[in-house]
Design a protein that fits this description.
Layout (H helix, E strand, L loop, with lengths): L1 E5 L6 H14 L4 E5 L5 H11 L8 H25 L3 E5 L2 H11 L4 H12 L6 E6 L2 H10 L12 H17 L4 E5 L4 H17 L1
This protein binds thymidine-5'-phosphate.
Length: 205
């Protein structure tokens, strides 16, 4: 089972994942958490290049390709082997982030982006994708208030992030069977409870 979490900036994915993992392990599931970009030595090195505020001159096509390079590596080195061992892989972002950020955000050709994504993933699609959805301004404000510094992607202007969120909504509409939307403007505990419920329901299906 391959589960991915998606969302605009400040949606809280990263804070929820450790608690989901602990909850599922207590239930006896073998679960492997990972994140994108990253999750392997090569992919983490590419992440540093992508997110470094010094790389302000990076062209959107360069950005798109670097995300795919990081992705191809984690798919082959981590995700495919774990799935083959029947583990549950839970990823903080996957290829829908590229469609949302590089496709809708940068307004690059969506068909070309989808073809690149297919190449990078070798066609590997998640069984379940959860959109942690929230107002873009609320999310960016959460980021400003946290003590973790800004990365190059977060620093894009607010219109970019509005297109990203709208893009996610388009994707949910296009593939309603794969996606579940969770409102992440609720209290943290309510979001966590809903995430647990959605994942357990999928496992029990
Ligand atoms: P995060 O780990 O804090 O979510 O940061 C990852 C950033 O990278 C976030 O701004 C979204 C961005 N991103 C893309 O633009 N495209 C991608 O394909 C992925 C995986 C992430």
């Amino acid at each position: 089972m391959f589960i991915t979490l998606e969302g605009p900036e400040g949606s809280g994915k990263t804070s929820h994942i450790p608690y989901l993992v602990e909850f599922l392990r207590e239930k006896g599931y073998v679960i492997f958490p990972t994140r994108e970009p990253g999750g392997t030595s090569i992919s983490e090195q590419i992440r540093d290049v992508l997110h470094d505020m010094k790389n302000a001159e990076m062209h959107p096509r360069t950005e798109t390709l670097l995300y795919q390079a990081a992705r191809a590596q984690i798919v082959e080195e981590v995700i495919k082997p774990r799935l083959a061992d029947r583990e549950i892989v839970l990823s903080d972002r996957y290829y829908d982030s590229t469609i949302a950020y590089q496709g809708y955000g940068h307004q690059q050709n969506l068909d070309e982006i989808r073809a690149l994504v297919r190449y990078a993933t070798d066609g590997l699609t998640p069984n379940l994708t959860i959109l942690l959805d929230l107002d873009v301004e609320v999310g960016l404000r959460r980021k400003t208030q946290s003590d973790v510094g800004w990365n190059r992607m977060e620093a894009y202007f607010v219109e970019f992030h509005r297109r990203v969120r709208a893009g996610y909504h388009e994707m949910v509409k296009a593939e309603p069977k794969r996606w579940v939307v969770v409102n992440s403007e609720q209290a943290w505990e309510s979001v966590q409870a809903e995430l647990r419920k959605v994942i357990l329901e999928k496992m029990n299906n």
